[in-house]
Design goal:
This protein has a six-stranded mixed sheet. It is of the alpha+beta class and about 230 residues long. The longest helix is centred in the middle third of the chain and has 12 residues. It comes from Desulfobacter hydrogenophilus.
């Protein structure tokens, strides 16, 4: 199993997860480029699906389905732990991660996770659902994955997010290294890197707790600390 990233629009990112015999398109906003890549690899695009139903992630669905006759799987019908078949290869596992929207989900492959608008590189998504506790629990699911898991997100917000992380933690020594590793042509990070720089995953660190203390914000529990970071920073 492998993954190819496609940038479209100003900052959206879509993906083709593929094996030697099959591929799955996720948030296919670049249908022409995806078809070209699959054709060069001599593999069919068998499934089209999404990380959530916001229009900027679903806009390429119909075009790609018409070009390939792929099977569309409505992401709202997927269940936690369900595996999407890649034909004679390990499949792609669904993780339900409500919070950004209540139907948001992620796709776990071999050594990587496609996170949509739940977890970005160096930040997290907005909690448009209003259910901050669900969002917290979803992020905790992702945080429990191995540290070398590659994070493939739904947007490239890296540089702006790092500027904001610098405001929150101006003395964080890991920010410069993370910035230097950023490649706009292939946007990815390891989960272990996110623990070093992403302020919304660092709610248990002494530096973030100290910032919350300075602002006299709730910080007794993990969820209180996460909520304070999300609502104030």
């Amino acid at each position: 199993m492998d993954i190819q990233q496609f940038k479209y629009g100003a900052d959206n990112l879509g993906y083709l997860v593929y094996s030697e015999n099959s591929s799955i398109a996720i948030d296919p906003g670049a249908p022409d480029e995806m078809v070209k890549f699959a054709s060069e690899k001599k593999i069919p695009i068998d499934i089209v699906t999404n990380t959530h139903t916001h229009a900027d992630h679903t806009q390429g669905n119909n075009a790609l389905i018409k070009m390939t006759k792929a099977r569309f799987i409505d992401c709202t019908t997927l269940s936690h732990g369900q595996v999407l078949d890649l034909k004679n290869a390990t499949g792609l596992e669904v993780m339900l991660t409500p919070g950004h929207t209540m139907e948001s989900l992620c796709f776990k492959g071999g050594g990587f996770i496609v996170t949509g608008d739940t977890l970005f590189n160096a930040t997290v998504g907005n909690c448009f659902s209003g259910d901050l506790e669900a969002f917290f629990n979803s992020l905790k699911q992702l945080m429990a994955l191995p540290g070398d898991t590659l994070v493939y997100a739904g947007h490239d917000y890296v540089l702006d997010s790092l500027k904001y992380a610098k405001i929150i933690e101006p003395d964080n020594p890991n920010l410069n290294e993370y910035t230097a590793a950023y490649n706009p042509d292939h946007v990815v990070s390891r989960l272990s890197d996110e623990f070093k720089v992403n302020p919304y995953l660092r709610f248990n660190t002494s530096s973030i707790i100290e910032r919350l203390k300075e602002k006299n914000l709730p910080r007794e529990t993990q969820f209180q600390r996460f909520s304070s970071v999300m609502e104030v920073f």
